[in-house]
User: Fold this.
Amino acid sequence: MRERAEELDAPRVSAADMRRALATELSLGVRIGHTLLLLTSLSVATVTALLLATEPVLPPRTQVALGVSTAIGLSWTGFALWVLTKRRVLFASHRIVAARMAVAFSALFTVGALLVGPWGEPGWYGAVGVGLVMLGAAIGLLLAARRRFQELSALRVDLERELGRQGGSR
Amino acid sequence: MRHEPERTDAAREALLDEWLVVRCQLGEQAAFDALIERWHQPLWRYLHRLLGDSDAAAETLQDAWLRVLRALPRLRDPTRLRPWLFTIARRAAIDRLRGKYAEPVLTPIEDLDPVGPDEPAEADPDIEVLQEELKKMPLIEREALVLFYLEELSLEQLAEVLAVPVGTAKSRLFRARKMLRRQLTDKGVER
Assistant:
């Protein structure tokens, strides 16, 4: 009776096939790609927005071009954020990788603004200020990601200990 | 029909589930594979019986797994994995059915004698007849039977998956048992 029931209940798609079908969904590369897209588009949008806001004299065509570039950058930022929060969500270890990338990008942005920007002018202060805010936010994300990873790792150790007490994992 | 697992086995299974969830939330590929391996068939059984069609069940199952993977980082209480998985599978099935029919109308709660998990189970009739009779049942009653008797959810877990109070889940189960019993009797299946 049990064998017949199992035969009737055999999935149309095997677990192995389902794992293969979902492999892309779990790919770290795709997540890294979208994190890169997020950081690059955000950096570009920030730079163009800062130029637009702080450059005193810009020809109208340049202003339009910078405005469009900012809008495009923000659109890509929104898209990448949507993917990373709704589609290719970040698990604890992925969050650490993404946050480290954010720290590196925002640090690079800040150093770039410090060295390349028009020293002492309002635009320079604006760029450095934005860079520092981004760096602070990225460090905050990294600390939160590490805390979550440590909590889960500790829980995992506890559960393995408990399972071990009950006779080893199957 | 329903076999109560040993309490220690159930506790160990729950612990294994929790361990798998935590490893998945950490981002371990092997844990995702193990999770799918462990829960693929129970979810298939549920969806197959609920939808009564292999193609629809296979597509819904893939959709359900996608939803599970996307929602896993937000599962705050890993001990709730079992009802959580069936809730997601149910939502995927309802979304699919919504495309074809109006959302199933919930029958009102009837003031029926309560049924408990301790009530003596009936002897198994022929499994194929049972499958056929299950298919003929209305969706709401069918899923209560499948989840409680075949997937061995507790009454509390059943209520959580069906998103109804425990009393309603009990009534629904009682009504479903009565319905199935009547169908089997009409069919001449001895109990």
